[in-house]
Amino acid sequence: MTRKLLMISVALVAVLAAAGIFLRNGAPSSPAFIDPSDASLVERGKGIYVSHCAACHGAKLEGQPEWRLRLANGRLPAPPHDASGHTWHHPDKVLFDIVKNGLVPGKTAPDGYQSDMPAYASQLSDEQITAVLAYIKSHWPQELLELQRKVTLEPGGG
Questions:
Q1: Which residues contact 96 (CB under 8 A, 6 or more apart)?
Q2: Most buried pick, 17, 19, 47, 74, via CB within 10 A?
Q3: Which of 18-22, 72-76, 99-103 has the lowest mean pLDDT?
């Protein structure tokens, strides 16, 4: 009986350890609010943005031309991330998830939505994604940053 109990205990510990690893790796570790006042974080984010984001979203965060008009394939061009776009309408956890996992229909996009936004989970660490978002947010005027902070930090935001 003691041997059987020991084996069950070992199996339970293994299952709990595996679940902890899964939950730790499966859930984005985005901070509650990504603060763009951290100059070193913003500087790191700038290089990552230039390497991974600027080709579609523009060197000056301006997005692709006519980003609100669907292309022939039914998809929308890449939106701007400056104040003229809608990025600031979203809580940080949503922005983080979009960068990490792409636009996922039913989660970060409407059901059936198709997008050219790739998932960067295999290319960028959570810290790099946070830095990119800090860089983007560092370009927003203070009033938009405050509105986005409110959306990010209010209960149920996103």
A1: 28, 30, 34, 126, 129, 130, 133
A2: 47
A3: 18-22
**Element (H or E) spanning 80, and its range?**
none
Q: Answer for the pair 75, 115: CB distance below 8 angstroms, yes or no.
A: yes
Q: Where are the alpha helices (DSSP H) in the chain?
A: 2-26, 39-52, 54-57, 92-101, 126-137, 142-153
* pTM above threshold 0.85: no
49 burial type by CB count under 10 A (0-12 exposed, 13-18 middle, 19+ buried)? buried
53 and 80 Cβ atoms separated by less than 8 Å: no
DSSP-based three-state secondary structure for 109: strand
Q: How far apart are CA 38 and CA 25, in angstroms?
A: 26
25-70 tens-digit pLDDT: 444 455 689 999 999 999 999 999 999 999 999 999 999 999 999 9
Instruction: Identify the residue with better confidence: 89 or 156.
Output: 89
